[in-house]
């Protein structure tokens, strides 16, 4: 039902119709409809969105009020939601905090997209609580099965002004031995090199299983990549895809990346570097690594698509 000109009033009628057969509905896409908060409330009350497996509400005119209902749906012990897209809505920090609260208990959510939602670094403390919670909850417990691990595998926080402090909060979650997080998008999040040491520490943790990291569109510069590579070179780092498009890099970053790959050749397969000031001589070093079977690296993206 994406782009069907559905507004709040129409959503009420839709919710009533879905109510008759809500148990069999598993995927609902209302993207690019002005559903609004009232429409979301109607859906929550009438057709039990917690029983969906996938809910797409990209650009639906939602605010913190909608997050109250969606957060409550996530809290249900019988919730089936595994994919949730709330991108391009003005959820702000307060709304994101409610979503995080919903993820904290018995949540099966595996994929969350909150790109361009007006979230700042202040809200990352709530996400950090979710990502770090299980290691704290397990402390002192003999029966770990009393708790269900947060299932989150893919998280898109791009185009939110998280800043370095926000990412420092999130990085601690990479060290959680119960974490399932494999893909993290932090592109265009107003980051600098100041957050790279914490990210590197998370990547170097033996508990981290992160395989995809997107830091494109942040002012990391060469010194940020140098810090990041201290994590990539660790034998515990399992990163397979790294995106550093338009990060203010020069060929010095190629030197750091090449050295890290030589120290840990078994994981990184894709490296995206488009939009940086890189010299051909530096790139040749990486190209040579793709020809060596010792290294997993097979894709180096330095050109516009």
Automatic annotation (TrEMBL):
InterPro entries: Leu-rich_rpt, Leu-rich_rpt_Cys-con_subtyp, LRR_dom_sf, NLR. Keywords: Leucine-rich repeat, Repeat. The keyword Repeat applies. The keyword S-adenosyl-L-methionine does not apply. It holds the Pfam family LRR_6. This is Ribonuclease inhibitor-like. It comes from Notothenia coriiceps. The gene is LOC104945223.
């Amino acid at each position: 039902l994406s782009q069907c000109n559905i507004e709040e009033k129409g959503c009420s009628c839709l919710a009533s119709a879905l109510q008759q057969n809500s148990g069999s509905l598993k995927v609902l896409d209302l993207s690019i409809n002005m559903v609004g908060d009232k429409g979301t409330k109607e859906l929550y009350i009438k057709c039990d969105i917690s029983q969906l497996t996938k809910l797409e509400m990209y650009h639906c005119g939602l605010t913190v009020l909608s997050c109250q209902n969606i957060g409550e749906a996530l809290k249900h012990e019988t919730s089936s939601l595994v994919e949730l897209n709330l991108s391009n809505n003005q959820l702000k920090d307060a709304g994101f905090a409610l979503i995080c609260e919903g993820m904290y208990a018995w949540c099966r959510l595996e994929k969350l997209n909150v790109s361009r939602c007006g979230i700042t670094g202040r809200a990352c403390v709530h996400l950090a609580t979710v990502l770090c919670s299980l290691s704290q909850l397990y402390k002192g417990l003999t029966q770990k099965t009393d708790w269900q691990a947060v299932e989150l595998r893919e998280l898109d926080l791009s185009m939110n002004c998280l800043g370095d402090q926000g990412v420092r909060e999130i990085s601690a979650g990479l060290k959680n031995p119960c974490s399932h997080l494999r893909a993290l998008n932090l592109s265009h999040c107003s980051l600098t090199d100041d957050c790279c040491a914490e990210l590197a520490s998370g990547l170097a943790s033996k508990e981290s299983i992160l395989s995809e990291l997107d830091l494109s569109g942040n002012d990391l510069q060469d010194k940020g990549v140098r810090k990041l590579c201290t994590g990539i070179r660790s034998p515990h780092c399992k990163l397979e895809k790294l995106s550093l498009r338009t990060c203010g890099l020069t060929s010095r970053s190629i030197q750091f990346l090449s050295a890290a790959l030589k120290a840990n050749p078994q994981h990184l397969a894709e490296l995206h570097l488009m939009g940086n000031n890189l010299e051909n001589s530096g790139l040749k070093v990486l190209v040579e690594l793709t020809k060596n079977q010792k290294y997993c690296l097979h894709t180096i993206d330095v050109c516009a698509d």
